[in-house]
Amino acid sequence: MQEVPLSEMLNVSRTPIREALVVLDQEGLLQYRPNRGYTVRGFTMEEILDAYVVRESLEGLAARLLAEKGLSREIDAELSAVVADGDRILSIGHLSEEGRRPWGLMNSRFHRTIILATGNTALIDATDRVTRIPLASAQVVHWFDRNDTAGYERLKLVHQQHHEILEAIRSGHAYRAEAKMRDHIYGTGAFIQENYKRKWIELDARKPKTKKSIE
């Protein structure tokens, strides 16, 4: 990622490009190496799963803190509207490509509302950083296929967990809210690991076998 080619491609001066590269480096999306400049950072599956471990702790804590703090009328109404959106998206009885983005926005809004409602700046900042890692954001939607009946049933289960988390927070059951949120995040991380492993196996099986590999 070099300043001059980027500034020419985007038709802007080098100053905002330089500033943007520094910010992306700070956010962990680029890496700076002396004499080489900035390169796009790659992420391993282990790093992605590590991000889910951190999310599990942070968002579990957020759910507990909010349950202890108590829901304001405004936040309760916001979270109720979010889960109602999820119910509407799933009400057609199958997954649809048109529902992919609304589902991602709904899911992100649910998690983000809980985190922001804690008012805990350190928690908010830490969550912002970890969710910048690819596939770790609540807005990312995995495997959304109309004919995927199992996927549809899984999303129904995931959304039922949203309802249960909200009810635990609303009832002031702090540790129940934390446990349900942690289980919710853990399940997504495990799902990603299982499906990517399966897809890599499928892709490897489709590769043409050389004589040496057959032997």
Give a structural overview.
- The protein has 215 residues and is mainly alpha-helical.
- The protein folds into 2 domains: 3-40, Arc Repressor Mutant, subunit A; 45-206, GntR ligand-binding domain-like (Four Helix Bundle (Hemerythrin (Met), subunit A), Up-down Bundle), CATH 1.20.120.530.
- The longest helix is centred in the last third of the chain and has 33 residues, at 174-206.
- Helix content is 70%, strand content 4%.
- The chain is globular and about 55 Å long.
- Residues 210-215 have low confidence and may be disordered.
- Per CATH, the architecture of the largest domain is Up-down Bundle
Radius of gyration: 21 Å
Return residue spans where pLDDT drops below 50 for at least 5 consecutive residues: 210-215
Strand order of the largest sheet: 1-2
* Mean pLDDT figure: 84
What is the subunit organization of this protein?
single chain
Q: How many structural domains?
A: 2
Write the element-wise H/E pattern from the N-terminal end onward.
Answer: HHEEHHHHHHH
Key features of this structure:
215 residues, globular, disordered C terminus, Four Helix Bundle (Hemerythrin (Met), subunit A), Arc Repressor Mutant, subunit A
List the helices and strands and how they pair.
Elements: H1 3-10, H2 14-26, E1 30-33, E2 37-40, H3 45-69, H4 73-90, H5 100-117, H6 121-130, H7 149-170, H8 174-206, H9 211-214
Antiparallel strand pairs: 1-2
Helix pairs in contact: 1-2, 3-5, 3-6, 3-7, 3-8, 4-5, 4-7, 7-8
